[in-house]
Design brief:
Structural class: alpha+beta
Strand order of the largest sheet: 7-6-11-10-9-8
Radius of gyration: 62 Å
Length: about 550
Amino acid sequence: MSKLRNNHPEAPDAARAPDGAATGTAGGASASPDGDTAIPEDSAILESAWPVLLEMAAPLYIAAPDGRVIFSNAAFDTALGPTLLTDGGRLPRTLTRRIGRARETVRQTERVSGERLAQTRTFEGLHRTVPGPDGRVRALIGTFTEVTRTREAIANVRALRGRFEEILSTVSDWVWEVDADWTFTSSSTRDDGVLGFDPVSVLGRNFFDLGQVGVNPKVPKQRLLKASRRAPFEAVLYVIAADTPDERMFEISGIPSFDEDTGNFAGFHGSARDVTQEIAADRRARDYRAELEAALAQLRAKNTELNAALERAKAADQAKNQFLAMVGHELRTPLNAVIGFSEIMDQELFGPLGDERYDAYVDDVLASSRHLLGVINDIIDVVKLELNELRLRPDGIAVARLLETCAAFVREKAAREGIDLQVKAPADLPELIADPQKVRQMLVNLLTNAVKFTGAGGRITVAAGLRGAEMAIWVADTGIGIAQDQQADVLQPFKQADGTLSRNAEGLGIGLPLTAQLAQAHGGRLTLESTPGTGTTVTVHLPLEPAAGRAET
């Protein structure tokens, strides 16, 4: 035990023991429990035990009012004396003043540094004054309790709590607790940029007043969360600031807690995940799906209408084609009789007609009848092509001879119109395998058109040549030409480049379309190049081998 300070000779009695502990009663002996005088040895026992008790106690000191320590035990001298006391064995002046002015116990923590950081120790000191009979401060006393491990445990708990909150922040947007009345008692400290509101602001508010509880559409047959709930719940839809620009939706889950001693319900603790954007996207997707389904239904209805209209159009087109075929056949039979009788009259097989004017009339009737028959035959061919009823009869064709034959059909008329007609075909052209009658019909149509739209002094050239595996036969003229925006029309049946009622050229406008269709029937094609005021070139491209699609067997 520390000795009394040399500058305090009056301290032995005070330092030895509490009042009467060392000296016993006034007579030198203590009273026994049954009233008899105590054995003198009891005082001696107390006298000898008191120093040992002080050595076993926690660090403590007794100081004069000015902070000079007049007594301290070994625990204080070893642990705190070297750090706490100043030169001359005094308490720090600030601590002395604080104790002297305080009316209650003064608490102050002292840190005692070791050689290494891990050896630093922490003590919590309790200091107070000892008043004298007159009320003035007679002494200062203090005891210390080491709280090193307690502080370390608190620091560890805080660090653990921080790590726990960090972990929770990675798996959940919001961690919360409510008491038995569903009042928020704890809320995670995530910033309001994540949640849309300050998490701490919910403390003290009722769970069901803060937000609206709904059924999560992603969880089938989910029960509505109520305040009477005592079982865990999961993925409940919780909406805060509903129907406002700040609306936030959460999938919230909770676990009940119960008092360990009484077993009474103590509240819920749980977490929540922000699903605002997710649900908004889901709603947009459902709206888009509904719009798409509605549009699809409209498209189906339109498609049904179009199919019905197409069927009606096909039926009407087929009826039209059948009608044209029937009319063509009905017209061709009497027309052939007219042509036959006209030819008999023209040849005067049964004698002269008499008046010379009859000869001219017969020539006009015969020419008109043959023209009309050609038109009817063209119409019938168009109908057969559309009905896929045209059958080809392929045979070998000498192309140069074919060109001369076809040119002969229009040469006389071209000469009357003052048009120069030229035929150009190499003598070594290979034989073309195609339907001779249909190829002749195509060339006559092209030559007839060329004569029709070429004026006096113009030139028409019919020629042929090999272009790869195809035979190209073309008719070029220096006529009026066809405008670019009308070239597609002239390849449609019953259309002409001049569509007005005042056009000068005769015909139904089926020559080029029929030629194009006949070329396609042979597996070929038709091309047209034309410049208004310069002329037109129409080329028929035919494969050297016959097409099998419409060939007659």
